[in-house]
Amino acid sequence: MKIKIMKGKAKGWVEAPPSKSMAHRLLICAGLSHGTCTVHGIAESKDVLATIDCLESLGVKCERNGESLTVTGIDIKHAAANRILDCKESGSTLRFFVPICLISGSNTILSGSQRLMERPLGIYKNLCDERGLLFSQDITSLMIKGPLKPGSFKLAGNVSSQFISGLLFALPLLDGDSTLTITPPIESRSYINMTISALGIFGVKAEWKDQNTIFIKGNQEYRSKEAWVEGDYSNAAFFEALNVFGGDVKINNLQPDSIQGDRVYSNMFEQLSKGTPALNISDCPDLAPILFAVAAAKNGGVFSGTRRLKIKESNRSEVMTQELRKFGVSAKVYDDEVIVYPTDFKKPEEDLYGHNDHRIVMSEAILLTLTGGTIEGAEAVTKSFPDFFDKLTSLGIEVEQIEN
Questions:
Q1: By three-state DSSP, how is residue 15 classified?
Q2: Region 34-46: what's the mean pLDDT?
Q3: ∠ CA(99), CA(101), CA(102), 5° rounding?
Q4: Does residue 81 surpass a pLDDT of 60?
Q5: Residue of 286, 335, 351, 387 with catalytic role
Q6: How many CB atoms are closer than 10 A to CB 35?
Q7: CB 244 within 8 A of CB 298
Q8: How far is CA 390 from CA 116, 129, 241, 290, 365, in A?
Q9: Is 286 a catalytic residue?
Q10: pTM higher than the cut 0.70
Q11: Max alpha carbon distance in the chain (Å)?
Q12: Which neighbouring-strand residues pair with 107?
């Protein structure tokens, strides 16, 4: 899909979408509970739908009523054998479900796109190899078989926190206590804390014993609860960026005391508006594309903690650098750093490309409100924010679909 965006300044009120990250977590906890739960604030993004599909493949019953989902959980220890879970393109879904499916001694196949299976899974492979568990992967699927046993687990802290969260869902259900030691530096700690918070809502306890160690008591049960998904700071950041560019946008549905790491966007936008700051984004990697975009249109910036951007839906450092060149912006990508240089920002003379990455498309769209222009592959927004362009239009930005 090709989208044309006209130059303009945004004005009005907009509702932040529900947090995709928290929706995954609350739905999984509900699916592991004994009884029926209701989770409110479920948006139909492709990633969240993938998690719902996987829950249903395990035998969880999910019934939709508007933005609420009634979830009847299962005893995962005795879930049916020979299951196939389609994770589509959702990295969170795949990494969260691997340890959950290892709880039983049944074969499980997790499938997904080729790009998804190219994203690192080595942490789980090593874990399975060390414990004599089956882990067999090809270009579109992964076969695993437990049972996972309690004990001491050690993971690197500078890889995706999704591996840690996946284990946090599973370990409380095992028949003994476990410890999870994370070797520093720990990146995306806020996402680990979001998982611990979600567990707590459903009566499951995991606690930090020190800065690097989490203790998880075994033989716990997820309880039936009613839960609400809070607004998403990572997607709200795109609309806040419109204010950096002279807009007047107010954002509703954000929890002021949220533990989401992406809350830092307002402070980072302020620094980018005033000068050329050095920003570490290791705890908020999802903000990278919009931060690069704001830096390009303002005063440049130096961003560290960018190593993991290469394993997202696209290689975000490289593709943002490529797209920013179309605006006349120079940027350099290093192993764990991206530099966006101050320059004369201009209207692109060719189409921008979405690289099948929702956050790239949304960042490009915000930049185009300054210049006007077109984006090829704009349908990628459906991964996390299906009504993004509708919300942009509601703020007075003219958006036209010019090609299917």
A1: strand
A2: 94
A3: 60
A4: no
A5: 286
A6: 13
A7: yes
A8: 28, 47, 17, 19, 12
A9: yes
A10: yes
A11: 62
A12: 145
